[in-house]
Amino acid sequence: MSATMDTESTYSGYSHYSGHSKKAHRQGRDRHKSPRSKDGSRSEKSVTIQTPPAEPLLGNDASRTEEGQDDNWGETTTAITGTSEHSISQEDIARISKDLEDSVGLDCKRYLGLTVAAVLGLLVFLTPVAFILLPQILWRDALEPCGTVCEGLFISVAFKLLILLIGTWALFFRQPKADIPRVFVFRALLLVLIFLFVFSYWLFYGVRILDSKDTNYQGIVQYAVSLVDALLFIHYLAIVLLELRQLQPMFAVKVVRSTDGESRYYSLGHLSIQRAALVVLENYYKDFTVYNPALLTASKSRAAKHMAGLKVYNVDGPGNNASGQSRAMIAAAARRRDSSHNELYYEEADHERRVKKRRARLVVAVEEAFTHIKRLQAEEQQKAPGEMMDPREAAQAIFPSMARALQKYLRTTRQQQYHSMESILQHLSFCITNNMTPKAFLERYLSPGPTLQYDRDRWFSKQWTLVSEEAVTSGLQDGIVFVLKCLDFSLVVNVKKIPFIKLSEEFIDPKSHKFVLRLQSETSV
Questions:
Q1: What SS3 state is found at 177?
Q2: Which of 29, 61, 342, 471 is 20 to 30 Å from 265 at the Cα level?
């Protein structure tokens, strides 16, 4: 039995409608009583991908009460209090605690991997130096003189180690972009290879040089040089496996957002499923428009209104078995009363008309505001040529003239939750500083942009979950489908292999383009 905890919340700027608190409380109670779905029929493997932290989107409650708001919401500010429809049950608390435990486990795994890699890298760079210095420390007097040859080898080892250090820093020491759920196979394979390689060299060094106290110092130095050369070749192998192998496109993936059906196509090389998921998420944040749940409320309210208008009667009585005839009668009545397509047509036409009207008002208001700021700048330069108006003060001066038109346009297009007054002022001051036109200023608001365009506290996706029937460390194959889930929507990824293209050549004889014009003698030319 789940215990719900209802919190009191205050909403300002919205018109009062009756029955809000009771309906919200009833919806929250029904939602927690509904049975949870079980995925026992499919053997799916679910793992979690951590992305840069972000807070849930602000203004969700505003989008839910969009239908109950009028156009003059900025003029009436009625504050009401009521019971929020957000409630937390015992099962939700257990799930949150489980997610926290999983995140702690991921952090421990990440730091453990970094520690192992750092210790192994330090061992790699100190091993050649130790090979050269140990004979000088333990049996220096018994060593044969080496002279110029050893000095040249010392310089070679120093420069090779420097090159190896720079290459290792460029390839491995990078800021991690995400926490992947499983180990990167090729990187783990390289670490194991390096460990076995260095261990073999130390084993041979301890048996053949340290135990016998070899006096041929030139041979010992050349042994250290061979170790550095082998490490350089392993570094080249790491570049091929980690960077070059995935460059050639081999698969075409289609990414579809589950809520609104927006899709994109991408080309990927030989990658594992978890690394392909990372590439998809990186492209999602810059290619897909920001997820706006307010755009989905209109269709839901229309469907609920249509279902509320239908009345079902049991014409056969409780004991009659003629259920097929009754269902046919109900379906016929529903078809006769179905006018959803007309409602949809007129709603979309009215919405487009309102958007165009609000857009025209906004464009005119912004152009007038920018004209005003240019006039103020010209006046300031005439009064004091050495003084310039601060961009922040200029933005605050012209913002009230365009605030009403911008506010109404954002409400009409349901973008108000993505743009706060502070972010608008910052963008306006940025445009004034860089001498940008009104059209450049409006580009952010006239059409929804990608997710990266907005602040991180406006993002929905805080944590992604990768669901795949195949192991996430396995490579991409033709026909594989995996899903990336977050709190409010999911991305369905379908993998298709790029087909083999057979290109043939056809030779055209240059003489085939030549022709001879023969004129008869009786023609008049």
A1: coil
A2: 471
Q: Do the beta carbons of residue 112 and residue 183 sit within 8 Å?
A: no
Contact 446, 361 (CB under 8 A): no
pLDDT at 70 over 50: no
Give the pairing type, strands 251-257 and 490-497. Answer: antiparallel
Token pair belonging to 164: 């190896």
Burial 64-82 (b: 16+ CB within 10 A, else e): eebeeeeeebeeeeeeeeb
Q: What is the DSSP string of 128-168?
A: HHHHHHHHHHHSSTTSPP-THHHHHHHHHHHHHHHHHHHHH
Residue 374's pLDDT band, with cuts at 50, 70 and 90, is confident
Asked whether 21 and 85 are in contact (CB, 8 A), the reply is no
- How do residues 409-436 score in pLDDT, each as one tens digit? 999 888 888 888 888 999 999 998 898 8
Domain boundaries of the chain, sorted by first residue: 106-244, 249-291+457-495, 333-446
Which alpha helices (DSSP H) does 271-314 contain, by range? 273-287, 297-308
Token pair in block for residue 344: 């949809």
CB 151 within 8 Å of CB 218: no
C-beta of residue 484 within 8 angstroms of C-beta of residue 490: yes
Give the model's pLDDT for residue 524.
Answer: 57
Per-residue pLDDT averaged across 169-191, rounded?
Answer: 84
- Tokens for 187, please give them: 């990187």
CA neighbor of 259 nearest in space, from 236, 227, 289: 289
pTM over 0.70: no
Its CATH class, for the domain covering 249-291+457-495, is: mainly beta
- Model confidence at 449, pLDDT cuts 50, 70, 90, reads confident
At residue 264, the pLDDT reads 93
Which residue in the block uniquely carries the two structure tokens 């120093």? Answer: 158
Helix (H) or strand (E) holding 98: helix 90-138
Instruction: Name residue 475's beta-bridge partners.
Output: 272
